[in-house]
Write a structure and sequence with these properties.
single chain, 427 residues, 5-stranded antiparallel beta sheet, 4-stranded antiparallel beta sheet, flat, disordered N terminus
């Protein structure tokens, strides 16, 4: 390979920018053997870091490879396996409780106490210390996690399970069934006493973590669509039905020149469009589970079809999209085609230098190759992403790989390898 086809960008002087994103809890398919490696005298943050570095990223790759082979995904560990693994962790007192004033105006919580009575008393005091009147105990748990989902003060439900992620899923499902508008939220701080397991690190913002659990376990199917009049793109995401998403996109576009470019084929997907600036051809729309992959795959398909460098819209996602929703829960985004430039995607990669690799995989999916020398606890690994452009008509296939160096769980530097990268990353 010609050396000019491979450039490495390091972290010298770089300040990680933007918001930190968490790994989706749906990826937490843990094996007993790897959990056992993380047993011993460590605090909650150390335990979470050990699990994520020794298990989650390798498990992501295995699941992806299994899906590509058509195999069934890896099974969830059995209850006995989970209990054995958790019994090896540092023992803590096992009782916790929630208390609240009417309408959930004030919510008190307590954890890691030696008896139910002490936990309930502490939760009531926490509620009262916040100014709560007529506080009452809502739930008490013994060596399990309790997660509260609510829709204001009108509807609420608890999920109770050994793992916080499973409890969050239960709480959202139950609250959604009971709520008239099906828009429940998670209380940021859960209760996970004793052997209850939370994967939130101690330095992670509880509100951000709760938000990501909502994205992961929202039981509602949400849909997206995009329409255009040749000058503007009109996205709609988070619609409650596929046909409704298309109708809203066309209504936002308006006029006789409007056409529906695409409706998502699957629920809870991200949509991105790509086109050749100044060309008359309609934009190509791609859907994907993650925003990073949706955007880069739109650029790849556009380059494959045209043989040219394309511009791409920001991805719009039907996953409890983080933008403000309309009254019906949908999210709208409009943009003029001429205002979107053919950008250098290195601008999207550079902020990740120095950031945690698991946060990156949430936004950009699992790597196509993971090299760790066979050592799951290796401090240095290589994560490789295949962004090659497929052959189409008169245009040949063009290889492109983005190769990340990972050190102690953080992305240290990346290299662009292959002639096809010039269509995605300015050289």
């Amino acid at each position: 390979m010609n050396r000019k086809d491979s450039r490495r960008v390091g972290a010298a002087g770089a300040k990680p920018g933007g918001r930190r994103w968490l790994l989706l809890p749906t990826l937490l398919a843990l094996s007993w053997g790897a959990q056992a490696q993380c047993a011993g005298p460590m605090n909650g943050e150390q335990y979470s870091a050990c699990i994520t570095q020794t298990v989650i990223l390798p498990e992501q790759l295995r699941a992806r490879e299994a899906a590509e082979r058509g195999n069934a995904p890896a099974r969830e560990p059995g209850r006995e396996e989970i209990e054995r693994a958790q019994a090896a962790a540092v023992a803590r007192n096992g009782w916790g409780a929630y208390a609240a004033s009417p309408g959930l105006a004030q919510i008190g919580r307590a954890s890691d106490l030696s008896s139910r009575g002490k936990a309930e008393k502490a939760a009531l005091k926490d509620c009262q210390d916040q100014g709560g009147k007529e506080c009452a105990v809502l739930v008490a748990v013994d060596n399990e996690c309790a997660v509260l989902a609510h829709n204001g003060g009108a509807t609420h439900a608890f999920g109770i399970a050994r793992r916080e992620t499973q409890a969050a899923k239960q709480a959202l499902e139950q609250c959604t069934r009971q709520s008239p508008d099906r828009l429940c939220r998670l209380q940021p701080l859960s209760v996970c006493p004793g052997q209850g397991v939370s994967f939130r690190g101690e330095r992670v913002d509880p509100a951000v973590y709760a938000r990501e659990l909502e994205v992961a376990y929202d039981p509602r199917p949400l849909w997206g669509a995009v329409a255009s009049d040749g000058r503007n793109l009109h996205f709609v995401v988070n619609a409650t039905g596929r046909e409704r998403a298309g109708a809203l996109a066309l209504a936002d576009c308006g006029g006789s020149q409007c056409a529906l470019l695409a409706s998502a084929q699957k629920e809870n997907q991200c949509l991105a469009a790509a086109w050749v600036p100044g060309a008359a051809a309609a934009p190509i729309v791609v859907e994907n589970r993650t925003p990073g992959d949706a955007r880069i795959n739109a650029l790849r398909q556009c380059a494959s079809a045209t043989g040219q460098v394309c511009a791409a819209s920001p991805a719009q996602c039907s996953q409890r999209e983080r933008a403000a929703a309309e009254g019906d829960g949908s999210v709208r985004a409009s943009m003029r085609l001429q205002d979107v430039r053919a950008e250098d995607l290195r601008e999207s990669l550079q902020p990740w230098v120095g950031m945690n690799s698991l946060d990156f995989t949430f936004m950009w999916s699992s790597p196509d190759k993971l090299e760790d020398g066979g050592d799951l606890r290796a401090k240095r690994r290589t994560l490789s992403y295949d962004y090659s452009i497929k052959a189409s008509g008169k245009h040949p296939a063009r290889p492109c790989w983005v190769v990340w160096d990972e050190v102690d769980g953080n992305l240290e530097a990346y290299a662009l390898k292959g002639e096809g990268c010039r269509f995605l990353f300015k050289r």
